[in-house]
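Lab meeting, action items carried over

1. Structure of the two-component assembly. Owner: GW. Status: complete.
Input record:
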Amino acid sequence: MQQIRRKMNSLVDDENADARISSFFSISAILTVVGIIIWTLAPPPDIGPAEGQLAPDIVGEAHSNGAWEEFRLYDYINHSWTKGESGQLIFLQFMDTDCPHCWSDAPKMDDLYTNYGSNGAVAFVTISAGMLSSDHSRGEIVAFQEKGDRDGCYHDERNCQTRDGGIHDWPYVDDLNMRAFKDYDIPGVPFHLLLSPDGTVIWNSGMHGEGDQLHEPASAIQYHLTESV
Amino acid sequence: MNAAMVEYGPLTVFLAIMAIGGLIASNQKIPQLEEMGKMRRRLLGLFVIEMGGLAASGWTLMIHNQMVTGGSEFCAAEGIVQCGSVIGDPIYSEFFGVPWGVIGIGAFSVLGWLTLSMFLEMKADWAKSYADYAWWLSLPSIPGIGWLVLVELFLVEGAPHICPYCTSVHIALIACMYILYTIRKERDEGTWEVTAQLSKADLLAKARKK
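Predicted assembly:
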């Protein structure tokens, strides 16, 4: 009698399993159809920092012309731009006000901006991250950008006014919360990227090591202004 | 194709699916479903609404994908009733980096699986408890909907905006919650019937038809 009951129970279990498995396959089939429609009509964009990918959006506040204003990277982008059309390239610099290499990168940025930014060929944006463990603040970002009289730059060891180069006239984005830094998967600072007018990453400094003819930002910008775009 | 048709055609279809689901789940007499028990009708109606919600969520994901790379032809971008400012918002269109459309698809898929399992095997021991699982799973949609309505009305750029496709998903979720509440209530009252209990007169009429 017990054996029969056990058999009956296992039969019920099997039947139950069938209903749930049938249901699972039905939902999977519906999801497959929905997925195919989505991928066909509006596939997810390929977003990332690698060359050929659409650069991730950067949203926050940027300091420019003496004031903090809302900033969105995609406002700089013309999504309908196609190769061959005229358009402005976008140069992104990731830095930290306390990083010694960023300190020495500042005058190089001056040169780049003088050669390519002041004539409007390239839009420059600096993203100031709070990567290092030293103190950071918006005041320090502004002091670094404008060479203000404030102690705390360069590992909290130097006055920001003493950095080489001039005042930077392009937007400095506050990324002290490291949001953009993480989105771009930045290995270290300073880090540079060049975007085409439609926001595609066309040069990533991390992908061009020593010896590569596009290792230096200036050569990459020059190449893409004359050869590529 | 006509732009208005592309913008609002799918919305009409999704809302129609949800309305049909609501009708099936209601107590309204439908001759084609007279052999189906009340609870079975509720489950079928619930499943139809969930699939309508899933389709609408998928559509919002498509709009989101297009908005990332510019505009979308699937929904208006100007005016108060539009999707562009809501689904295209760089901050509020995602939840911890996941587009709301993906969350909607996931939620409706799990709810759909639970509902279809119950519908296919109402006699099973677990079927009644699945109504509870579905109910508990649907509860987080309340703060979710509340937050998104707040975003539409106050937080997005140029607020207020009403995103019609997002609203259709909210309607589907609220309808699901209401039907699940009714199902649980009726189950607790002991009306979890497996087949419709036809009266002798109904049985006779049915036999005569044959």
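2. GW to write a short summary for the group page. Key points so far: The two ends of chain A are 83 Å apart (CA to CA). Chain A has a mean pLDDT of 89.
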